[in-house]
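Technical annex, item 7. During the second reporting period the consortium partners agreed on a shared format for inverse folding records so that results from different sites could be compared directly. Each record opens with the tokenized structure and is followed by the designed sequence. A conforming record, contributed by the partner at site C, is shown below for reference.
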């Protein structure tokens, strides 16, 4: 189910003979209230609530003379994508990926916590000189992106199976704050000349784009002692899978799985993720960077 609401208002103000202002405000709220597909069950599909979503625009035009026009404007966009658990999912449930059956179920992989900001601002200014046979325009455009999002890995782990038989647990180190910054500036000039039947269109533009992610840290990288409680939590989640295809294999497998569940590698350089093999199968030693 999806729905979308928009409350739009606009105001135009002729402040003086040569100065005109426009204000636009759009208050939006929307919901992508879960979904399902052949590969993802309903409880494993995240729901999104887009609120608050705000769009505010301002523009100014000034006719200085019959040939000279000045224009300026700014836009502020306040965006949030709030996620929530789907019906049938619980915060303690761990996501299951079954390679043999080709489905994901039990829970979503990630949620957005607080803060949850994806904001954008933009500004523009231009000068136009028009005579008829000669039209000249120059100006600049700028844009900034601010991204502060707390990402929460549900259960801090994902269980991978093949036809109901567990073969790997991926452990994540979360939650963590994702921070991104971007700024874009463009300066341009364009000129048009009309000479009898000949029209010349000339132009030049310079753009600069700079983006970076400020240094971010989590409390500590995973290690064996830290991972043990999460490993037990993941095994407890496995114990709850008593229905559906793979039930018999899971029953036979669990006792051996408990004995063999142990971390096979961790890093201390700030990378996030720990893998556990099942019954000492070294092919699962590949490190999962999340």
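Designed sequence (site C submission):
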């Amino acid at each position: 189910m999806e729905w979308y609401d928009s409350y739009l208002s606009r105001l135009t103000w002729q402040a003086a003979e040569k100065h005109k202002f426009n204000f636009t405000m759009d208050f939006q709220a929307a919901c992508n209230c879960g979904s399902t597909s052949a590969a993802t069950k309903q409880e494993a599909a995240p729901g999104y609530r887009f609120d608050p979503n705000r769009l505010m625009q301002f523009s100014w035009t000034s006719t200085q003379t019959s040939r000279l026009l000045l224009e300026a404007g700014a836009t502020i966009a306040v965006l949030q994508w709030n996620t929530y658990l789907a019906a049938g999912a619980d915060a303690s449930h761990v996501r299951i990926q079954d390679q043999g059956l080709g489905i994901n179920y039990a829970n979503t992989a990630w949620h957005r916590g607080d803060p949850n900001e994806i904001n954008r601002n933009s500004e523009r200014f231009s000068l136009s000189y028009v005579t008829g046979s000669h039209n000249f325009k120059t100006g600049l455009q700028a844009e900034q992106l601010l991204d502060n999002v707390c990402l929460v890995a549900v259960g801090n782990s994902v269980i991978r199976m093949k036809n109901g038989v567990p073969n790997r647990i991926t452990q994540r180190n979360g939650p963590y704050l994702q921070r991104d910054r971007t700024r874009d500036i463009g300066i341009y000039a364009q000129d048009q000349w009309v000479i009898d039947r000949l029209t010349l269109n000339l132009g030049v533009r310079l753009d600069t784009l700079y983006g970076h992610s400020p240094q971010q840290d989590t409390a500590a990288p995973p290690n064996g002692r830290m991972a043990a409680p999460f490993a037990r939590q993941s095994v407890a989640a496995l114990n709850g899978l008593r229905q559906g295809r793979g039930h018999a294999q899971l029953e036979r497998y669990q006792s051996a799985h408990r004995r063999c569940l142990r971390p096979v590698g961790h890093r201390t350089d700030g990378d996030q993720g720990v893998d556990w093999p099942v019954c000492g199968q070294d092919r699962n030693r590949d490190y999962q960077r999340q």
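Residues 224-239 form the longest helix (16 residues). Residues 2-162+175-217 form a domain with the Maltoporin; Chain A fold (CATH 2.40.170.20). All partners now use this format for quarterly exchanges.
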